[in-house]
Write a structure and sequence with these properties.
Layout: E1 2-3, H1 9-17, E2 27-33, E3 39-46, E4 50-56, E5 64-69, E6 73-80, E7 84-91, E8 97-104
């Protein structure tokens, strides 16, 4: 696994408890903004088949996990904003972009 950022062990333990094989993770990254562009802890994990988004809000005990089949995503790119950025993609059949993650510079 290539970890762009240091991922806490409790996050990997949570993924394991959700049935996700952490040995299948190829890429891991941390984002410091929620998808609503608020301060928060967000994690992205890529396996050969899935892009996994984990949201752990401040004071929340149970993280929320959303996964996207990679074969259904197209045009994954980083959109640069003035002092931040966001990772977006399009789903196969949809024209509207899917916001995957947001982060500060």
């Amino acid at each position: 696994m290539f970890a762009i950022d240091r991922i806490p062990n409790d996050i990997f333990a949570f993924l394991t408890s959700q049935g996700i094989d952490i040995n299948s993770i190829l890429l891991a990254a941390y984002a410091d903004r929620t998808r609503e562009h608020m301060v928060g802890d967000e994690y992205l994990f890529a396996t050969g088949e899935l892009l996994i988004h984990l949201h752990k809000g401040k004071g929340e005990n149970i993280p929320l996990v959303t996964s996207y089949p990679i074969k259904e995503l197209r045009g994954i790119c980083v959109e640069e904003l003035l002092s931040s950025g966001r990772l977006v993609a399009h789903r196969k059949e949809e024209n509207e972009p899917v916001l995957l993650a947001a982060f500060t510079n």
